[in-house]
Design brief:
There is one protein chain. Helix content is about 15%, strand content about 40%. With about 220 residues, the chain is an alpha+beta fold. It folds into two domains: about 55 residues, no CATH class; about 140 residues, Nucleoside Triphosphate Pyrophosphohydrolase. Strands 6, 7, 8, 9, 10, 11 and 12 form a seven-stranded mixed beta sheet that branches. Strands 3-4-5 form a three-stranded antiparallel beta sheet, with no helix packed on it. A hairpin with a 2-residue loop joins strand 6 and strand 7.
Length: about 220
């Protein structure tokens, strides 16, 4: 969701003012308040709410879409994106995205599970989706991104995994997953130019990886 620090988290109790409206206990520059929240859908990973929100200037949205991950780590980390790198080539998975009805090339991604750290999530997803194993403490942390800060209450940690194996173990592809291919940087640039890499987390991770190499 579009959460300013003054927004009530999903399970918080509202503070009622003298008019009976629900407000936040804190104040801030935006002072966006949730006046009502209604659960409209949920699955094992997300809860989707219709929020009635307002700000101090009198602006209101009665049906604001808020997507809240069911597992959130510290700093609102809900998932990860991992870029496997082998011999200077970058591994991306070909993924069919149902909402867009098209294929794209993407970094390895996944959601956090209870009890995991962000590094644990990244190492697990890398193994599950590619068959490559890299110890959690060997992953290179490149910060975090808010994939859709206007809708999703959650951020994704970005990691690079330097592979030492030539091939990983055979894994069953997930729904919509195609092959994994290791690309040169020129090939990556061409895929972006042709619109075959559109995923925000993947694009930012690729950029940060280039900046990391340039800084060495």
């Amino acid at each position: 969701m579009y959460y300013h620090p003054t927004i009530l988290p999903p399970n918080a109790s509202p503070v009622l003012n003298t008019t009976g409206e629900a407000e936040c206990a804190q104040s801030g520059d935006a002072e966006i308040t949730v006046r009502a929240r209604r659960l409209v859908f949920e699955n094992t990973v997300f809860s989707v709410y219709a929020d009635h929100i307002a700000d101090k200037n009198g602006n209101e949205v009665p049906l604001y879409l808020s997507v809240v991950p069911k597992c959130l780590l510290a700093d609102l980390i809900a998932g990860v994106a991992v870029l496997p790198v082998r011999d200077g080539r970058i591994g991306l998975i070909r993924v069919f995205r149902h909402p867009l009805a098209k294929w794209s090339w993407e970094a390895i991604k996944g959601h956090a599970e209870p009890g995991e750290s962000a590094r644990d999530v990244a190492a697990r997803e890398l193994l599950e989706e590619s068959g490559f194993s890299v110890a959690a403490d060997k992953l290179i942390d490149l910060g975090a991104i808010a994939p859709e800060g206007g809708v999703i209450e959650g951020r994704s940690c970005l990691f690079v995994a330097k592979l030492t194996e030539n091939s990983g173990k055979v894994v069953a592809p997930e729904l919509g997953h195609g092959e994994m291919v290791f690309h040169s940087q020129d090939e990556i640039d061409d895929l972006i130019e042709r619109g075959e890499i559109e995923d925000a987390s993947t694009v930012v991770l690729l950029l940060k990886h280039v900046r990391m190499l340039e800084s060495k």
